[in-house]
Amino acid sequence: MNLRHRLRRLFGDTLFKRLMLLMWVALVASHFLSFAAVRSLADGLGEARPMRVPAPGPGPDGMGVPPLSSLPPGVLPDGGRGRPPPDRQPGGSPPLRALWLDYLVRFLVIGGAAWWGAQWLSQPMRRLADASRSLGQAIAQRRPAPTLDEHEGTREVRQAAQVFNTMAQRLHQQFDAQGLLMAAISHDLRTPLARLRLRLETMEPGTQTERCIADLREMDALIGSVLAMVRDQHAPQAHQRVDLRALLQAQVDDRVEQGLAVRIADDSAGDAVVLAQPEALGRILGNLIGNALRHAGSAELSLLGSPGELELRVDDRGPGIPEDQLEAVFRPFYRVDGARHGEVGNSTSGGNGLGLYIARDLAERLGGRLSLSNRPDGGLRARLLLPSA
Predict the structure, then answer these.
(1) Closest of 181, 177, 190 to residue 223, by C-alpha
(2) Which 3-state string (H, E, C) describes 185-248?
(3) What dihedral do alpha carbons 285, 287, 289, 290 form, nearest 10°?
(4) φ, ψ for residue 287, nearest 5 deg
(5) What is the pLDDT of residues 252-272, one digit of tens each?
(6) What confidence tens digit (pLDDT) does each residue in 5-52 have?
(7) Which residues pair with 370 in a beta bridge?
């Protein structure tokens, strides 16, 4: 077993061996091809331009100069002594054209091999990046976690795939267990809270009694929000075409009937159809409008459109939120120090601290984005971006 392990490490497929083999083949191939090209060019130039030797002049008494082959060694045609001239001039440096061809062939071969090798070596990393991106979306939308092939690629790639699959499975299990635990605790808390509320209601009316009953109602609403959030996460509805304008108008009409200051200030979106879960989208709108009413007493809505995307703005004229806490308020039960006349979602504001957290969670599961910003003229603006159908 130890010998097999050593042999696998020695001859196994690794990124290092791939890179070494690729560079070796590229260098050898470039030198071979450039040598062949230059040699072929040099031979062609030699055949195209044969060496011309000037014919010797007439010798004494009008006789021609005998050929070199008939003269004794070392005797020149003019009677002098020395080495006879060669039939061809000795080759000098290769011509400039041959050098340029040599460099061009090497450049093209090495460049092509490097490009192909980069694609070859980076393909497993691209698959890992795509799977990591899909993992976040799968967890947010409560879909099965993506997996990678653990038997494909080099040893490093296979090990990374195994680690990724294990991590994805554990994350999925942890999120499921967390949601079920919250649901179980919230469900079990409702029974003692109901008994306590019944006992308080049988007591003599008084200020303290009414406050205790109000606190119990708020706790019951908090538990209801937690249970609804867990239900939405573990039993999501199917996506369907939803008219965002009609859904928004229904939300406004319900508030207006209750005497609340809610209006649509701008509607220039055109076709406002999105692919979403109706109940989840309605919960997002309700939480954003309710948050504005709770902290400012009024809400102004705007529905805008852009290519491939719809934007919903919920503006209020409240005190706003400090810039360094605009992201922190999306955490559950986060307290804003005096920015919104108390904490976001506390008893004084009538919320339960989960509205913005649930709204962003649902928005991301619908493929959208939710953000907050302070308006230049005062107040807070919530921006919901959703892909249009």
Answers:
(1) 190
(2) HHHHHHHHHHHHHHHHHHCCCCHHHHHHHHHHHHHHHHHHHHHHHHHHHHCCCCCEEEEHHHHH
(3) 150
(4) -65, -40
(5) 999 999 999 999 988 887 888
(6) 666 666 666 666 677 677 777 777 877 777 777 777 766 655 555 555
(7) 384
Is there a contact between 289 and 253 (Cβ–Cβ < 8 Å)? no
Contact (Cβ atoms closer than 8 angstroms) between residue 138 and residue 146: yes
Nearest C-alpha neighbor of 226 from the set 191, 187, 277, 194: 187
**Across-strand partners of 315?**
300, 381
C-alpha distances (whole Å) from 74 to each of 68, 77, 87 are: 10, 10, 15
Contacts of 114 (CB under 8 A, 6+ apart): 26
Nearest to 330, CA basis, from 371, 369, 381: 371
Q: pLDDT of 283-316, one tens digit each?
A: 899 999 999 998 899 999 999 988 889 999 999 9
Instruction: Tell me which residue has tokens 């696998």.
Output: 8
Q: Which homologous superfamily does the CATH classification assign to the domain defined by 240-387?
A: Histidine kinase-like ATPase, C-terminal domain (3.30.565.10)
Beta bridge partners of 303: 267, 312
Q: Identify the CA nearest to 37 among candidates 91, 85, 95.
A: 95
Cα distance between residue 148 and residue 176, in whole Å: 21
Which tokens hold the place of 341? Answer: 């006349």
Beta bridge partners of 372: 382
Q: Are 387 and 308 in contact (CB under 8 A)?
A: yes
pLDDT in tens, 190-244: 778 888 888 888 887 778 888 888 888 878 877 777 777 777 666 666 788 999 9
Give the distance from CA 346 to its chain's centroid: 36
d(CA 319, CA 340): 6
The β-bridge relationship of strands 369-374 and 380-387 is antiparallel
- Select from 359, 329, 366 the least CA-distant residue to 345: 329
- What are 227's two structure tokens? 């249970």
Q: What would you measure as the largest C-alpha separation in the chain, in angstroms?
A: 157
C-alpha span between 157 and 13 (Å, rounded): 10
Domain boundaries, the chain: 1-45+95-141, 181-234, 240-387
Residue 90 has pLDDT above 60, yes or no: no
Tokens of 221: 């609403």
